[in-house]
Amino acid sequence: MLQDAPHRRVVRLGDTVRRPTQPWTPAVHALLRHLEDIGFPYSPRVLGIDQEGREILTYLDGESGPQSWANVVDDAGLMTFARLLRHYHDAVAGFRPPDQLRWFTAETGARDDELICHGDFGPWNVVWGGERPVGILDWDYARPANRLHDVA
């Protein structure tokens, strides 16, 4: 069983992850579907909602959480990490979700100078396969913001 917070139960079942839905889940699913549609390889795929009302996402195999910090300590790892964030930002630069979708902040849409940031981009939310990132986790804090929001 995976846990991302004491009040949220995240469960791995085979090659899937089941997570409770939130009011912003439709916005996050729109974002993840956009990433899938353009072939962005680092995000989980949305598979639907199960009979218990939990979202079903593909499982991203590799190391994540506290173990991920070691991968960004040296210059090569830090550059790889920064390139991953740049690749994500480029992938969502033209994404404009429908205005009726609300993010965790209750915001809708995105201004011209914004894109949909991950919102919690850090080593703890990157899945690594050896020295290479293979995925980005925990999209709950995604929201419209300036690119710098994900950097600092």
- How large is the share of residues in beta strands? 25-35%
User: What value does the Rg take, in angstroms?
Assistant: 15 Å
Gross morphology: globular
Let me know the number of strands. 9
State the helix count: 3
Could you give the distance between the termini? 30 Å
Order of strands, main sheet, comes to 1-2-3-5-4
Mean pLDDT: 92
Oligomer: single chain
Unreliable spans are: none
Helix-residue proportion: 10-25%
Helix-strand topology string = EEEHEEHEEEEH
Largest sheet data: 5 strands, antiparallel
The class by helix and strand makeup works out as alpha+beta
Topology:
Layout: E1 2-5, E2 8-13, E3 16-20, H1 25-37, E4 46-49, E5 54-58, H2 75-92, E6 115-117, E7 126-129, E8 132-136, E9 143-145, H3 148-151
Antiparallel strand pairs: 1-2, 2-3, 3-5, 4-5, 6-9, 7-8
